[in-house]
Amino acid sequence: METSQIGEVFQVATNKALTETGGGHSQKGVDFQRAWALSRMFETVDEGATDFLFLFEAIQDVAVLDSPTDPKSIRIYQVKKKDRKEWEWSELTELHNPAKPKARPKDPSKIGTSTIGKLYSSVIAFKNLKSSGSFVSNAGTNLPLSNGANAATSVSCDLSQLRSDHLTLLEEGLKTLHDSGQTVPNPALISIEKVSLPPDDPATHLNGLAVSFLSKRSAKHAGQAKALVDALLAQIGPLGSKTDSCSSFKELCQQRGYARSDFIAALGALETVPDMQALLDAWLTRLTQEGGIDFMLATATRVAGGRIFTRNLIGGEDPAVAALISDCDRWIDANPPGSDLSPYFQKARAHLEPLHRSFRSPELIAHFMLRAIKKCVDLI
């Protein structure tokens, strides 16, 4: 049975006046938004949240409920990247700057079309859920605070901390968003958050978060951090692009939602992915037993393999490595292995080393063996 809280979420999500996000995003902006949402998921699970539901482009840019079945709270986000300079007061509120005496006063109701105004309107639309909002960006916000500091140098602050002249003007604007007779405006409901997520390369930041996350929860899977990030981004990427109207909260979740259960299922899928580092170790042990490699070179190859996994965590590819991998794959496709590993390995090494003299033997061997292992895994 649908609760009043769930009914309210669906009601707000289908109110076009409240869900409008204030303009389209460039592809880089969309990528930034999705990357931030995924980083927030990692943080939320790390913080011990027992449940959550992320809704994309349903209520502002992103909305996060504490439960998909019995929500008690919702936090609504506007997530914007900025390539140059800081955000200014007028950009966020559509109000004049009270610090400039010659600035022509604007109608306080203009705030309704602004980023802060739309965010605040969505927040106060909820009566049955505890609601709040955040404006999130990689850039700082040039807003003076009551303590003499500036929001641009703060990681996070709420709008009740603004300097008195800005706070008074903001409250006048926010009043126009309330129905007559409602409670006084509450700027503390909206916070400003500056995040260290580079819009030009969010993937590297995400991969680092995933490594840290997996190292704490399942260290043997830390080498699969990049694969996990890629899989999660592929899952949440389409959620905000769906424009079909929804007839129920269940349909809204199916089209635009991502719950903790989905996140945990993606983590569980890692258990089915072979541990390439363990397989490399097994191959090197077998090769040593067959006399195809001495103990010292086997040890150096294990170290080289570890470095390859570390580089793969953050993505990117050296052209020289790409050429080596291509030659490894061609050789493997043309030379089926026999029952013993040593002759197969020696033949491959004799072919590859003259072609790639810039690689030391341990690294070349590690690359070849990992490609051969991958070929075996792909046959499963």
How does this model look, in words?
Helices cover 49% and strands 10% of the residues. The protein is α/β, with parallel strands linked by helices. It has 2 domains: 4-269, no CATH class; 276-378, no CATH class. It is elongated, with a radius of gyration of 27 Å.
Strand order of the largest sheet: 7-8-5-3-2-1-9
Report the sheet-strand fraction.
5-15%
Number of strands: 9
- Mean of pLDDT: 89
**Structural class, please?**
alpha/beta
SSE pattern, N- to C-terminal: HHHEEEEHHEEEHEHHHEHHHHHH
Q: What are the low-pLDDT stretches, counting only 5+ consecutive residues below 50?
A: none
**Helical amount among residues, as a percent range?**
40-55%
Shape: elongated
Rg, alpha carbons: 27 Å
Calculate the terminal CA-CA distance, rounded to whole Å: 44 Å
* Count of separate structural domains: 2
- Report the major sheet: 7 strands, mixed
Number of helices: 15
Short description:
By secondary structure, the protein is an alpha/beta fold. It has helices at residues 4-13, 16-19, 27-46, 89-93, 115-124, 164-175, 202-217, 225-236, 249-256, 260-269, 276-289, 295-313, 319-334, 341-352, 361-378, and strands spanning 53-56, 62-65, 73-80, 87-88, 130-137, 141-142, 156-158, 190-194, 257-259. A seven-stranded mixed sheet has the order 7-8-5-3-2-1-9. It has a two-stranded parallel ribbon with strand order 4-6.
